[in-house]
Input
Amino acid sequence: MSLNQSPVHPVSSMAQALKQYFGYDAFRPGQQQIIQATIANQDVLVIMPTGGGKSLCFQLPSLLETGLTIVVSPLIALMQDQVEALQDNGIGATFLNSTLRSTDVRDRAAQIHKGEIKLLYVAPERLLSDQFLVFLDQIHDRLGIARFAIDEAHCVSEWGHDFRPEYRQLKEIRSRYPDVPCVALTATATDRVRQDIIEQLQLRSPLVHVASFNRQNLYYEVRQKRKNSYNELLQLIRKANGSGIIYCLSRKRVDELTDRLQRDGIAALPYHAGMGDAQRTENQTRFIRDDVQVMVATIAFGMGINKPDVRFVVHYDLPRNLEGYYQESGRAGRDGEPAQCILYYSPGDIKAIEWIIEQKVAPQTGEPLEQEQRIARQQLRQVVGYAESAICRRTVQLSYFGEAFPGNCGNCDNCLYPKPVEDWTIESQKFLSCVARCKERFGMNYVIDVLRGSKDKRILGNGHDRLSTYGIGKDRSTDDWRVLGRSLLQQGLLDETSDGYGILKLNALSWEVMRSQRSVQVALINRSSTLDAQTTSKLRAEAELLFDRLRALRKQIANEQSLPPYQVFGDSSLKLMAQQQPCTLEDFATISGVGSYKLSQYGSRFVEVIRTFCEEQGITPRHSTLSGLPFNEPAVPTRPVLSRTHFITFDLHQTGLTPDEIAEKRNLRLTTVYEHLALLLEAGHAIDLDTIVPPDRQTQMEKAIEAVGGLSLRAIRDRLGEQYDYGEIRLVRAKWRSNA
Output
């Protein structure tokens, strides 16, 4: 159909079709604009994460137009999955692939000729066959081809994570049918891959829609692969409330792990290219229908699989590249509900992938495909950088796709359990200066060799032993410099070419660092190993306990102000407070959902609960801007910030009520009343302590405080014994502080 013949469809008819055929009341972000451009016969490139609704962008337009939409799909399983879903919605859709008998192919071709089919799914190999092209010519002349939809379009690019040479030939289709528009869709594509897709598919002035790659519901974690990793995996599966996918690097590992899980009572099935088509299809169907809980697979499984309720994706081996990892892990939580993405990492995996890279050779001559190998090695370095990174996992992932993310996502291991950091600004200036003096023409290893004074022939031949930066980094190990280089790249303070060579390039932020306008913090990953399962479990238990306390405080404040609790703070904010434990107002202000108004209204009360919890548990807060200082003894002593609720408690105390009576009258917990009284006492208000704590007990507590210090309530109580209560200790400590 030509552009002039394309009807104009109002938004109302689009919304009606959305509800009628798909059951949705509203479009997801970006879908309406894409569909309008598609209906107007504009070429479109859609980059939208898994679960974002890419398929709707070509499926819905096909229902509003005459002609047949040809969907190019790389996997049989993907075709069957989408066609079944469309047919369940009463939409005329079918596929033609190698699983069909010749009679089935003829029957489906007849349906197409009768105009009963709106969407036809085919593989690129079939699409380009001579016999099928004749069939397409007939359809084009009689019914019209509405458009070509190229799904998993990253396969067209050698820079993508799943390059398929047959996709490169799709440009022949554009030449054969120049009047038929094209929509290309993929979940992942860097800027270079996007440009390659546009060039290879000959998209004409396309609308390019790039959605955010941030999947907020996914929890990301990297674990060291150890002897007990299988037991960890087993426990994760048993605790999971739903199905999951486990990715392995080799077919052998898939079979071994599947067998072991089955022997331990887990309903698991394998999936890899070494199995027959029928067996793979059967296993996939059983997984999608929840007949089994776990699919253990190589990367041959999962592309385009429409199972929204996958609750965990585990990479039991290191993935080959970040783009593939993002897409594979993104098969978790497509329904928007929380899901886990766990990656097990061992340096031994690197050698296995390097061996796979070495097998990239020309089929005819056996000569190494040097360009492909070089790109694959750079992609491997990026994956290793991600696995060893100590900054927010989302920052690393999203920066790979050119999307800036500030960090502190609250839903990855590095944000929830941060490693210690040091100021490495001076080292960064040395590193970046060396990049500059090497004229931005070399990769990371070369720059590190210059910094450490290597006698390598290349360095001597280039005269770089005469640079001012030569040898100035001997005090740091190669691994230290590599950690710094990766951190600079991940924080956006340095760039790297994506041509396989990984040439380091300076950017505007690099110069800010060199001019001392920006500091650089680097996590000490070599001095703080990945948390083991026991430690992680303990930290999560602490966070859950603190979350309950914060939720009780939120309910109390909500009752005081006749508000629904979520208007005080949402659960997501409370979870961040529980995980990060901000013990100063300055740190509390960094929590997502805490604006200036809520900081002033509620900050001091929430901070006090967090501080009290940390003191009782003997916890050093994980998130404090007072680096190196005891968290409850600020550099400059300040009086507590009091609010209306504290003064209500103060007035009742002034009338002679005991803490128990105040708690009952105000419907508060007794510990909350003690917290109020302690803050009031520290702030200089007249609290009659002798009516609450007998003077002789005060004397004993003061001696304990003098002996162990006033930092930890638990330490004071351990000194005194269990006959002393935290509430009274808190009051006496407040008096001791006010006198000090």
